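Lab meeting prep.
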Amino acid sequence: MINNKIDEMIASALKNRETDLLNVLKLIKTEFVNAMHNKVELNEANEVKILLKMASQREDSIQQYI
């Protein structure tokens, strides 16, 4: 699952002191945790939906800024 891979990447980013990557991974992890609190089953399909939603939000923000 993507959630498990994110956990591994967070540990690696902490170890390698990659603060920018760590911040992004924490944002993703927060969205996954919020989904679990909202009773969403975290299977791979739902994880991908969450990531696509986050990417879309960032793209909208970029377009508004431009």
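Slide two material, second protein:
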Amino acid sequence: ASVSPGQHHLCANWPAEFAAEWQRTGVAPLNAEVGRVYYFRVKIRHVRIKDMEDHSLDLMPVNEDEGKYLTKFLPLSTSTLKK
């Protein structure tokens, strides 16, 4: 997605019915600069310890080299601008 320069707040949602909303939403700040490309990775974690389950979604920036490498092999996500 293209954004104007300046401070932005990114979020990613995982539509999992079995996880609470705070467990399936990841957020990250972005201070966008003109002409730069930014890459982010969404990581879904599921941990089970005895009878307890924990889920989380992390939205993390990755460096340009890793971003270019990953976009060759992984499907890109879709974005929606929300105000």
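Talking points for slide two:
The mean pLDDT is 82.
Strands lie at 6-13, 25-32, 39-49, 52-62.
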